[in-house]
Write a structure and sequence with these properties.
- The complex is a heterodimer of chains A (509) and B (353).
- With 509 residues, chain A is mainly α.
- Chain A contains 22 helices and no strands.
- In chain A, α14 (301-335) runs antiparallel to α19 and α15 (339-352) packs across α17 (378-402).
- The longest helix of chain A is centred in the middle third of the chain and has 35 residues, at 301-335.
- Chain B has 353 residues and is α+β, with helices and mostly antiparallel strands.
- Chain B is built from eight helices and 21 strands.
- Chain B has helices at residues 51-59, 106-111, 120-132, 148-160, 178-195, 206-212, 230-235, 240-245, and strands at 11-22, 25-36, 40-44, 66-71, 74-78, 81-82, 91-94, 166-170, 199-203, 215-220, 223-228, 250-256, 261-264, 267-270, 278-284, 289-291, 300-308, 312-319, 324-330, 340-345, 350-352.
- In chain B, the strands form four sheets. Chain B has a six-stranded mixed beta sheet, with helices on both faces. Chain B has a five-stranded antiparallel beta sheet with strand order 2-1-4-5-6, with helices on one face.
- In chain B, β4 and β5 (74-78) form a beta hairpin.
- In chain B, α4 runs parallel beside α5.
- The longest helix of chain B is centred in the middle third of the chain and has 18 residues, at 178-195.
- The relative contact order of chain B is 0.12.
- Classes of the chains: A mainly alpha (509), B alpha+beta (353).
- Chains A and B meet through α18 and α19 of A and α1, β7 and α4 of B.
């Protein structure tokens, strides 16, 4: 049944408010960026240093994306199409880097090999933390393609490798491209890895402009260029995703079993998997544990406990606020069509293209110019993180609500329940597991988040991420140890479990 | 149209000239219908004719472009303006596949529309209704533990619990398999009768409509063409399209004579009702056509195919005059393909200009 297009005020008003919150950074950026008129913007962009930044950022993005596509696709292939034992465990290990913050992975590498800093280090670290963005959708798509097609190809006289290349890979091509675009978006938005590796890209320079007693116009213009690049990537990714959905329509039951792989292939697959997991998960874990051994003697455990408490306090506040804001938006998108909903959906995606450092920067300026008393106070920090995690939670709410049929709500209303009470008694409770998972991801994400926390936290307040940053930039890895271990155990590991779980669930449907 | 214009009867539902469209596509065109209190009325129509939209308009999820709706004596839509929100209308939906609330137990589902749903009174009502649909003792089960037929019965109990002015059932059994369908249907009808509830029941299944409803409203071309008791509908369809839609029909060209009979390839036959003189389409039901084994029987033809159904069967016969007709016969008397047969019609036939 078609979704109704007229949206009730109960949803429309809070949804519009949420959209406004999400777009607040952009409003500021345009205001500050264009303060010297359009000519000022053009001059700033055409400066050789800006163009140099564009080239550096895009080179890094391109290299990381290509590497992630190769690694991600090969790992997906190993998990879905070989007969290795423990492939589910392997899938979880391959997905694990998704949960390791890029700055932590980067510090883990430079503490071990200081010479790696620079382009190579940044590219390596960004590749190992972002290849799961390719691996997960490609694995899901591979599972959805019928192995019988490869059998048909082989019966027509084509070798196994050629059959895989010409039949299956062609079918999962949209998933590869979509995943690659997500990696590219991750790379242009990343602050932690490039900062730790001291490789100058947009995000690092914007942060520098802020630290250096700021040139707000230049920072805003650079941020706008960055947002434009991210927006292009988002639009492309959306297009590709639409195509992926269509190519999977109308398949019957697929044969899932795979033939026993030959011994040589198994050995090759194990070797490759070992290298990938060692580099992406092994090195950070070994590094962090070695810091821990160095640090225990001087560690102030009371301080660690306090930091964990503050991190989760802010995380929980962020998660609650974000869920509250995301509920009307997610429900509106899931249940209504029409112009208002399309506009809401589009602005959520615009928000998604705002890198953390850009959000942080705009909220700093908004704080200074509009709500001075709140500047460097917890509410403003929560506000900034809320903007960052809004798209994630809106997506979770929307998926959760779409799982249930709107007929449930019709039945409830025909039984005498008002619109508001139906939301409370039917729509939200039915979708609660999915909504809670979205909230949990926002909570864990907020605990790991670095740039917004760095810029917006109250003076003196430290979270796990800022503590790791604070000690790492001065190479005091002994002091970082306990914070890094806490972050890995309390935030990274649960994130990995939650996201693997949700991806596997999505793949099943 | 509805024949009930004589004595004033209390009505559970009254639709008056409803029209509705989605963009340029008309979905409802001047729909009028009355459901007397305590009656089950079926709306029978092919899929895509606007039946579901009709239910959505009645329950208030769509507002019609024009027309009025009265539920339980209260006007809820007047001249295409909605006056009453869905939750205030006193209609209870039983959708396809039940749509039980997955986060609530069976008992909580049934109690959903009750005012004080955690009171002892509500619990008594829930047990009473579950008992009625044959699911006493299931109150603490989860919906997913029940079979499709059981879920559908819980959905009915949930709809009946707040004693709505009318229950609206939308193809309630289309998702069940054939063997289950009939028994669940009988249980649902029995429960509706036992509570004296009024119901509007949308279906595309003729047998379902004809065998269970007090009155059947045929919906063709986005409007209701006839609303009658089932037997009346079958024997006195108001138009050729209704005659063809309800039951099987053999169509022959005929000529209405001055004495009110009609002549066609199967002879001179008595007319059911009247028809204007001249060329008409004659409609004969296959069960009216029998084998004529008398000597020198007229209307000879050749059997071109036979279908055996068990208790009975059908044959297609090409008459020597050129027309092809279908006859439904007792299974023991089925001729074989290629056999020569003679046919005769029993009873009155229909004719439409």
């Amino acid at each position: 049944m078609a979704r109704p297009s007229r949206i009730p005020a109960v949803l429309a008003v809070p949804a519009a408010a949420a959209v406004f919150v999400g777009l607040a950074p952009l409003i500021y950026l345009f205001d500050a960026g264009f303060s010297r008129g359009i000519q000022g913007v053009v001059d700033e962009i055409m400066r050789s240093r800006t163009l140099w930044l564009v080239v550096r950022s895009l080179t890094l993005t391109l290299v990381v994306t290509l590497a992630s596509v190769v690694i991600g696709t090969s790992c997906a292939w190993i998990v879905v199409r070989t007969s290795l034992r423990g492939r589910i465990a392997l899938l979880t290990l391959f997905a694990l880097p998704l949960a390791i913050p890029s700055y932590l992975a980067a510090f883990a590498w430079v503490s071990w090999l200081p010479g790696i800093a620079g382009f190579f280090g940044a590219a390596l670290v960004l590749t190992i933390v972002s290849y799961p963005y390719v691996m997960l959708p490609v694995a899901a798509a591979l599972r959805a393609t019928d192995i019988a097609l490869e059998d048909v190809a082989r019966s027509l006289g084509i070798s196994p490798l050629a059959a895989a290349w010409r039949v299956s890979l062609r079918q999962v091509q949209p998933a590869i491209v979509g995943g690659g675009l997500l990696v590219a978006l991750y790379v242009v938005s990343d602050f932690g890895a490039v900062a730790a590796m001291r490789y100058e890209t947009f995000t690092w320079v914007i942060y520098g402009a802020y630290r250096a007693g700021f040139n707000p116009t230049r920072a805003a213009i650079l941020a706008l260029v960055l947002v434009a690049i991210a927006a292009v990537l988002i639009i492309l990714e959306r297009r590709v995703r639409g195509r992926t959905a269509r190519t999977r329509l109308g398949r019957g039951l697929n044969r899932r079993s795979v033939q026993v792989s030959p011994r040589s292939l198994r050995i090759a697959a194990w070797t490759w998997s070992g290298i990938v997991i060692g580099v992406s998960v092994g090195v950070p874990i070994v590094s962090v544990t070695s810091w821990m051994r160095r640090g225990t003697a001087v560690t102030d455990w009371g301080d660690v406990a306090l930091t964990i408490r503050d991190s989760f306090g802010i995380g929980i506040a962020t998660a609650l606020a974000t869920v509250l804001l995301a509920l009307p938006v997610g429900i509106a998108i899931a249940r209504f069509s029409g112009r208002f909903t399309r506009a809401t959906e589009a602005s959520v995606y615009v928000t998604h293209s705002l890198p953390g450092i850009v959000v942080a920067l705009s909220v700093v300026y908004l704080g200074i110019s509009l709500v001075r008393p709140l500047y460097q106070q917890v509410p403003l920090l929560v506000f900034g993180q809320m903007i960052i995690f809004l798209p994630l939670v809106v997506g979770a709410v929307r998926n959760a609500v779409e799982q249930s049929t709107p007929v449930l709500e019709d039945v409830a209303r025909s039984l005498g329940t008002s619109r508001m009470a139906t939301l409370r008694r039917v729509t939200i409770p039915v979708a609660l597991p999915g909504i809670a998972a979205g909230g949990a991801l926002a909570l864990l994400g907020a605990v790991k988040e670095l740039p917004t926390t760095l810029l917006l936290r109250p003076t003196g307040l430290e979270t796990l991420s800022t503590s790791i940053w604070k000690y790492s930039v001065v190479s005091d890895y002994g002091a970082v140890g306990p914070y890094a271990v806490a972050l890995m155990l309390l935030a990274a590991a649960p994130t990995a479990v939650l996201s693997t779980f949700s991806v596997m669930k999505a793949a099943r449907q | 149209m509805s024949p009930s214009t004589g004595t004033p009867m209390s009505l559970a539902l009254r639709l008056d000239g409803l029209s509705h469209s989605f963009g340029a596509i008309d979905v409802l065109n001047d729909v009028s219908l009355q459901v007397p209190t305590g009656h089950i009325t079926a709306v029978l129509g092919p899929s895509g004719v606007g039946k579901t939209t009709l239910l959505r308009v009645i329950s208030g999820f769509e507002t019609p472009a024009s027309g009025s709706i009265e539920i339980g004596g209260r006007i809820v839509v007047r001249d295409g303006r909605s006056l009453v929100e869905p939750e205030q209308r006193g209609v209870a939906l039983v959708p396809q596949e039940g749509a039980l609330f997955p986060h609530l137990s069976v008992g909580e589902n049934v109690a959903f529309g009750l005012p004080k749903r955690r009171s002892a009174q509500a619990r008594a009502r829930v047990n009473e209704l579950l008992e009625l649909v044959g699911l006493g003792g299931f109150a603490d089960r989860r919906p997913e533990e029940l079979s499709g037929g059981m879920q559908q019965r819980v959905a009915l109990a949930r709809a009946l619990a707040p004693s709505p002015a009318i229950v609206l059932l939308d193809e309630p059994f289309s998702a069940l398999d054939a063997s289950l369908k009939m028994s669940v249907r009988d249980q649902v009808v029995a429960a509706l009768r036992a509570t004296g509830a009024s119901a509007l029941w949308v279906t595309h299944d003729q047998q379902e409509a004809l065998s269970t409803a007090d009155r059947v409203a045929v919906m063709l071309d986005n409007t209701i063409t006839q609303c009658s008791e089932p037997a009346q509908l079958y024997s006195h369809p108001v138009s050729r399209r209704v005659a063809e839609f309800v039951g099987e029909a053999v169509k022959l060209v005929g000529n209405v004579e001055a004495d009110g009979t009609v002549t066609c390839a199967l002879g001179r036959l008595p007319l059911n009702g009247t028809a204007p003189r001249g060329i008409v389409t004659v409609i004969v039901r296959p069960e009216q056509i029998e084998l004529d084994e008398s000597p020198n029987a007229p209307h000879a033809g050749t059997t071109i195919s036979t279908r055996f159904y068990g208790h009975d069967g059908e044959i297609d016969v090409r008459l020597d005059s050129g027309e092809t007709v279908v006859a439904r016969l007792h299974a023991t008397r089925l001729p074989r393909s290629g056999d020569r047969v003679h046919l005769v019609v029993s009873g009155q036939v229909l004719a439409f200009a």
